[in-house]
Specification:
heterodimer; A: mainly beta; seven-stranded mixed sheet; B: mainly beta; six-stranded mixed sheet; five-stranded antiparallel sheet; 0% helix; globular
């Protein structure tokens, strides 16, 4: 299985600022995803990070608020822009590696716990 | 869109007891997966059951799937304190690659 490093692990930010979260994988993976997990809630998919092209966003999420980069097959970033307290959540990246592709089994980073004051 | 719904929302048992968590979903699926999330950590894949399977085992885990009722259960036998975590079901309904629908989760506490 892929090993995923996500950072920062947590941050406390001021309203109106932006935070960029990094996700590094130890092997090349086809697909990378970004999720949001609001306090006490389940995971909601924000977008699929596509290598070499714009990310594919789910309903309710827009590029201006959550710009995503994926410069290569092992790295992606998610930026939470112009933050408000409602953005306080855990943000998780996940990947599908080759062995799990057919089964759609995802491997997750440890998450970034974001608090916005 | 469909969403898995787990019950109970919270489960507290003594070490050594069995724990059962249930998941219901709304539309047809390719497979159903269970993940565990320890406090402050990411999700870890536990087990996958395909739509044409009815039961699957992995160590102390037993998963059942009833496609006619659109429901699944996860049984953890002889629970240990280390099993304390949140457990989520996730359904692969054959949409976009990688698009899993996660349930709300069951918070499971095991008392030593």
């Amino acid at each position: 299985s892929a090993v995923i490093s996500q950072k920062p692990s947590r941050d406390i930010c001021q309203r109106g600022t932006s935070l960029t979260i990094q996700c590094q994988v130890d092997s090349q993976v086809t697909m990378m995803f970004w999720y949001r997990q609001q306090p006490g809630q389940s995971l909601t998919l924000i977008a699929t990070a596509n290598q070499g092209s714009e990310a594919t966003y789910e309903s309710g999420f827009v590029i201006d608020k959550f710009p995503i980069s994926r410069p290569n097959l092992t790295f992606s970033t998610l930026t939470v822009s112009n933050m408000s307290p409602e953005d306080s959540s855990i943000y998780l990246c996940s990947v599908l590696d080759k062995t799990a592709l057919a089964k759609n089994i995802q491997y997750f980073g440890a998450g970034t716990r974001l608090s916005v004051l | 869109s469909q969403q898995g719904e787990e019950d109970p929302q919270a489960l507290s048992i003594q070490e050594g007891e069995n724990a059962t968590m249930n998941c219901s979903y709304k539309t047809s699926i390719n497979n159903l997966q269970w993940y565990r999330q320890n406090s402050g950590r990411g999700l870890v894949h536990l087990i996958l059951i395909r739509s044409n399977e009815r039961e699957k085992h992995s160590g102390r885990l037993r998963v059942t799937l009833d496609t006619s009722k659109k429901s699944s259960s996860l049984l953890i036998t002889a629970s240990r304190a280390a099993d304390t975590a949140s457990y989520f079901c996730a359904t692969d309904y054959g949409g976009s690659q990688g698009n899993l629908i996660f349930g709300k989760g069951t918070t499971h506490s095991v008392k030593p």
